Amino acid sequence: MQVLSVAAILMFLTGSFGATDLSQEQINTILQAHNNYRKAVNPTAANMEYMEWDDSLATIAQGWADRCDFAHNPNPAANYAGSSVGENIYAGTGSYTAGKETENWNNEVSDYTYSSNSCRSGAVCGHYTQVVWATSNKLGCGWKLCGTLATVNWNNANLVVCNYAAAGNFIGQKPYVSGTPCTQCANGNDNCSDNLCGNPPGGATSAPNGNGAGGGASNTTDTPNEGGDNGATATRHWSMLPLGGVIVTLLILNMP
């Protein structure tokens, strides 16, 4: 299976309410996968915020996914007031399992070094840092089964777009502050639970029915970078997805 990762620049722009084609169970799985990875970062995070679902972001993401084009939304926050918006994009052939996109993004942790805030040479890790960006506490995703996925010209591909507010991946900044969990929460440590600021006591951060989408488990391994153009990188991954196929991920990087 093949994975491509491309970096783009965030547009700082200015939600409207709407829907996503994801089922409620799929929404729960994707959201809980994010929170599972966020609570389990190493080193531990002093200011990691609990992530919540945002219908406005989901509407934006679904609208972009419906275009069936493997390209970034150049204006992801056009209808989202008061915050910058980040974006991760995933596409794969074969059957789609919710949470697989988040696992794929999180797998980049193996290429990221927190102390130096850097990726392994030739690797991409911006999808991972967006997933665990401490102040990105809103998430909305859309999904589309595309007969033809433009730009890469794949047939019968699942396209998943996830938008984040506030955006992460500011160049020169680490994704979170390391330290004892919940000791540097933005609004104090009230409602801190399971290493996440703002997580209501007893708040669920595991996948439905106890099936952990998080925990850092991975069935994907990285092999050397295969190059790219215009600053993009292409990295090959091999995975055990049902029916085989191709996986693609996109990310956004932010300028300060």
Automatic annotation (TrEMBL):
PROSITE patterns the UniProt entry points to: CRISP_1 (PS01009), CRISP_2 (PS01010)
Name of the molecule in the record: PI16 protein
Span of the signal peptide: 1-18
Entry GO CC: extracellular region
Organismal lineage: Eukaryota, Metazoa, Chordata, Cephalochordata, Leptocardii
Alphabetical list of Pfam families matching this protein: CAP
Disordered as annotated region, ranges: 208-235
Keywords: Signal
Organism of origin: Branchiostoma lanceolatum
SUPFAM superfamilies: PR-1-like
Record has Signal as a keyword: yes
Source species, domain of life: Eukaryota
SCP domain location: 25-172
